[in-house]
Amino acid sequence: MTSHYPRPPSLWGTGSECAMKKNTLLELAFALLVFLYAARVVINLPPDAQWDCGIQYASAQAFVNGQNPYDRHEGVSWEYVYTPESLLRFAPMALFYQAAACAGKLYLKLGLLLALVVLWRRKFLAEEGDGWFYVFCLLAFNSTIYLDVRASNVSIEEQFLVWVGFYFFLRRNYTAFSGFIIAASLFKGLPALFLLVLWFADFETKGISDADERRFPQIKEKTPRSSAFIRVLSSMQARYFFGSLAALAAIHGVSFLLAPEFFLTFLSNALGHTGYASSSNFYFVKATFATLQTATGLAVPDAAQSTVYWVLAAGIAGAAVWGIAAARRFDDSPKWRLFILCAAYALIIPNFGDYSYVVVIVPAFFILKRTRLTAFLPLLILLSLSQSNRLPFPTYLIYVWDHFPALAAYAVMGLYGYEVVWPHPPAPSPDRRSRSAHRERGSR
C-alpha cells in the first residue's frame, strides 16, 4: 500500500542543492585524508623516501652556487634529468635546509593535488563524478598518487598544468591551452605530445560549407580549390600546432644560448636515464619476452624486442586517432579526444613511471562509469590497490600485478574502443521516464 503522506524535507536540501552539499563534504573529507596522510609522511618519513626531492635540492644548490646542476652530486642516486628551465622552479629550495625545503615542497604538492581533484570532478566528470571517485583517486593504478607523493616526483605539478590546459581546451581557448601545455613541458618535455590534440580542435570555419557546395554545384565550379595538403597547412589547427611548437622551441633555444653546457648535459642525462619504469608498457613487452624465454628457451634479441614495442606503439597511436575520429559520430564533446589521447600517451611513452599514471585516472573513471562495468566499480577500485610485493600471489599472478598499471591502461583503451564501436545508450529524458512510469502504473 502506497502512503499518500508527503515525505519530510531532507536535511541535505533538494535537487542540485543536495548534490552540491554532498560533493562539498566529500571534497572536504578527501582533503582531510590527504593532509593527515601528509602529516604522517613528514613525521615518519623513511630514509629511502622523497629521493627525487634530494636530487632536486642538490641540483638547486649547485645551480645557485654557479656549478653544473646536471653533475652527479654527493648523497643522491641519480643525475638531474629535468630541463634547464625547471631549475628556476627549484632554485628557491636552496634558501632552506633540505628537510624544510622538502617538507614545503610536499605541502605545495598536496595543495595542488586537492585543487587538481576538485578540477577533475567539477569540470571533467560532473555527473560521472561521485563518492567512489575520491576512493579511486587514492587507489587507482597501484596507488599512483601515493607513489608520486612518496617519491616527491614532479608528476602532480606537471599534471596540474596539463589539466588546467585541458580545461581551456574544453572552453575552446586554444591559446591558453597551448600555454599551459608548454609550461608543463618545461619539466620533462613529454607533455608536449598533448599539443597533438590541436589537430582535433574545433574552430569556426568561414567560407562555403560542404552542404552549400552540394546544394549549389555552380558555386563549387567558380570557387578555386587548393590541394588538400595546402588546406591542411593553412588551417587554424596547423597554425596553433606549429605556433605552439615554435614557442616551445624558442624557449629551449634561449635556454641553450644562455647556458649551452647545461642544455647539452641535460640531453645526455635524459637520453641515458632509465629510472624505475618497470610499470611502463615498454618494460611490460620486455618482461613478456623474458617470460617466454624462461618457458621455451627461445631468446629474442633486444633490437627485435624494441622493434616489436615501437610497432605496438604505432598501432596504439593509430587506434587513438581512429577512436577520436569515430567518437565524434555519437559524442562531439572534446572530453573524448582528451581522454583517449591520455590513455594512448600512457602506453606509448617508453619510460613511463608508476607515478605518471596520474594522467589516466580521470579517463579510466569516466569510461568505467559509462560501460556495463559500472556495477563492478567498487571491486575494480579494490583490485587497483593490489601490490604484488605485499600480497602472497602465485607466480603467474605476480607477473600480472607487477605490470598492472600498463595492463589497466590497455583495458582503458579497450573500453574506449568498445564504447566507440557500440556506443552506450543515452539516458532517457525526464519526460520519457515519467511516461514509462505512468504506463507501468496503468498496467497494474
Structural Rg: 25 Å
**Number of structural units classed as domains:** 1
**Topology as a string of helices (H) and strands (E):** HHHHHHHHHHHHHHHHHHHH
- Fraction of residues in helix: 55-70%
Q: Point out poorly predicted stretches.
A: 5-12, 205-213, 218-224, 426-440
Mean pLDDT: 76
Tally of contiguous helical segments: 20
Task: Find the count of extended strands (DSSP E, 2+ residues).
Answer: 0
Summarize the main sheet.
none
How much of the sequence lies in strands comes to under 5%
How far from one another are the termini?
13 Å
Report on this model:
- With 444 residues, the chain is mostly helical.
- Helix content is 65%, strand content 0%.
- The chain has 20 helices and no strands.
- The chain has helices spanning 15-43, 51-64, 87-90, 98-125, 131-151, 155-170, 174-184, 210-215, 217-222, 228-233, 236-258, 260-272, 281-296, 302-327, 334-348, 361-368, 377-383, 395-402, 404-421, 430-443.
- It is globular, with a radius of gyration of 25 Å.
- The chain starts with 14 loop residues before the first helix and ends with a helix.
- The model is unreliable at 5-12, 205-213, 218-224 and 426-440 (pLDDT under 50).
